Amino acid sequence: MKLFKAIVVGGMIAGALDITYAFIVYGPLTYKLAPEAVLQSVASGWLGEKAASAGGALTALLGSGTHLILATVMAAVFVLSATKISALKRNPVMWGLIYGLGLYLVMTYVVLPLSAAHRSQNFAADLQDVAARLQVSFSSVRPKNRWLLLGTLFTHMVLVGVPISLINKRLT
Q1: How many domains, in total, are found in the chain?
Q2: Which of 77, 88, 131, 142 is the most exposed place for a label (fewest CB within 10 A)?
Q3: Which domain holds residue 77?
Q4: Distance between CA atoms of residues 102 and 17, nearest Å
Q5: Contacts by 23-31 with C-beta closer than 8 Å and gap 24+?
């Protein structure tokens, strides 16, 4: 029961912190997106950008649910790993930061390229594209906006990885 509680609480807190950051940064600070549009951008991973933005509140709800499920899966991976690797509990801030960096890399270079938001109509070509991207050195990747890259790293490391790790230490 303690593991389940750590997973759910960790996922919900990390998900809430992450989406709040997105509402602020992609809202008033940069692109002036409404929270509904931010949530629709999450749903675009399932539906594609056009369908998600045309879906109104229903696709925003899908985006919200998807976001919280993803955050809970992220928490589950950490909490269950910590049952096998006791070092993960000894320094939760350090391991949370490292885990958050890993989450950023997986989301950016695996999950997003395979999502419908970035997918062409040719799945085989998409898989080849992902394989090619994974072989590219990270130093050659030039983000369109370095501040948004730093913010995304901060979010994954500080607002997702660290809370999950701290909650795991406290509740398990």
Answers
A1: 1
A2: 142
A3: 2-171
A4: 18
A5: 25/148, 25/151, 30/148
